[in-house]
Write a structure and sequence with these properties.
This protein has helices at about 1-5, 10-15, 20-35, 40-50, 70-75; strands at about 55-60, 65-70. It is an alpha+beta fold. A two-stranded antiparallel ribbon has the order 1-2. A hairpin with a 2-residue loop joins strand 1 and strand 2 (about 65-70). The longest helix is centred in the first third of the chain and has 14 residues, at about 20-35.
Length: about 80
């Protein structure tokens, strides 16, 4: 992720505010990789995403399926973001 290598936290914050849940999940991955301190506004957005009951389209090579946000959060340990 270019925005991670550039440590572009402002762009990641924009991604958290996106209407696209897939983009929001990419932002979570970016924050996880950066391991930066998270302010209260960012923490609130992350918490809202983590609590989502939605599903996203997931691609694994030739296989496409729907995956719940809850399972993605568990698989990627995104709850750790709220502990920083």
């Amino acid at each position: 992720m270019k925005i991670v290598s550039e440590k572009n936290v402002q762009e990641l914050f924009k991604w958290l505010r996106s209407d696209d849940l897939g983009i929001q999940l990419y932002a979570l991955e970016g924050y996880k990789r950066l391991a930066v301190d998270i302010d209260d506004a960012t923490r609130a957005l992350i918490s809202t995403i983590l609590d989502s009951k939605s599903e996203v389209l997931s691609c694994a090579g030739c296989f496409v399926s729907y995956q719940s946000v809850e399972s993605i959060v568990r698989q990627n340990d995104y709850l750790e973001l709220l502990k920083k």
